[in-house]
Specification:
The chain has 247 residues and is α/β, with parallel strands linked by helices. Helices cover 36% and strands 27% of the residues. The protein is built from eight helices and ten strands. The strands form two sheets. A six-stranded mixed sheet has the order 6-7-8-3-9-10. The protein has a four-stranded antiparallel sheet with strand order 2-1-4-5, covered by helices on one side. Helix 4 (127-140) packs across helix 5 and helix 5 (156-168) packs parallel to helix 6. It starts with 11 loop residues before the first strand and ends with a helix.
Length: 247
């Protein structure tokens, strides 16, 4: 059975409680995430910022169910990931969680339209309906005229727009984006970040975006800075403290 993600705004879209992730490099344990607790309310655009090795991509992989925590609890839309087996986690990613990667992850032999329709097809949507929805998603990201082009016929920015359309075509409650502007020039990168912010603002899609860039982080509604696998700074907490001081 597919997990049903609860989009009730009273509950968090993502919640991590006391999460630790330890990897092994040979015989040596490496702690990537350390006793981390984080709440992401529905409809928020959170950017996880920090240097390489700070744990931000590990957090994203844990939320996506690509990795399991060593300790702690993770819920996505009220669903405890620990209660899901691998098949259920895959179903969740295919149907309820959109993912955008730094390297686009488009299938080179497929057109933009076919790439965007792909997650619908593997979810069992009929071909014509999947293509119609994919065409609409590409139009929404400004690529109505590029539907029949393959990835090697698209610019970097166009490939990332295609990847965003693919993430949005399933109508997700949550989008996870891992350094989505890392392979783009500054102009194309700003266009992608503005597009994600628009999706958050107009569709209410919750976004959790990983970046090392302060410029990119400013597109979010909240910036959480990680250092050595734990939260070093959370501007939502700082805003709350400042508000309390004024009251």
């Amino acid at each position: 059975m597919e997990p049903t993600i609860d989009t009730d705004p009273a509950g968090p879209a993502v919640a991590l409680t006391g999460v630790t992730k330890v990897y092994r490099r040979g015989s040596r344990p490496v702690t990537a995430v350390r006793d981390l607790t984080l709440r992401v309310p529905c409809g928020e655009f959170v950017t996880l910022m920090g240097p390489s090795g700070s744990g931000k991509t590990s957090v994203l992989n844990l939320v996506a169910g690509l990795d399991r925590p060593t300790r702690g609890d993770i819920t996505v839309g009220g669903v405890a990931l620990a209660a899901l087996d691998d098949d259920a986690l895959t179903a969740m990613r295919r149907t309820r969680v959109g993912m955008v990667f730094q390297f686009f992850n488009l299938l080179p032999e497929l057109t933009a339209l076919e790439n965007v329709a792909f997650p619908l097809r593997i979810a069992g949507v009929r071909r014509r309906a999947a293509l119609d929805r994919a065409r609409e998603a590409l139009a929404q990201v400004g690529l109505a005229a590029r539907t029949d082009h393959r990835p090697d016929e698209l610019s970097g920015g166009e490939m990332q727009r295609t990847a965003i359309a693919r993430a949005l075509v399933i109508e997700p409650a949550l989008v996870l984006a891992d350094e989505p502007t890392g392979n783009l020039d500054s102009h194309a990168g700003d266009e992608i970040l503005a597009l994600l912010a628009q999706c958050n603002r107009e569709r209410g899609v919750t976004i959790l975006l990983v970046t090392h860039s302060e410029h990119a982080a400013r597109y979010g509604t909240r910036v959480v800075t990680l250092q050595d696998g734990t939260i070093a700074r959370d501007d939502a907490v700082l805003r709350s403290l400042r508000s309390g001081e004024r009251s």
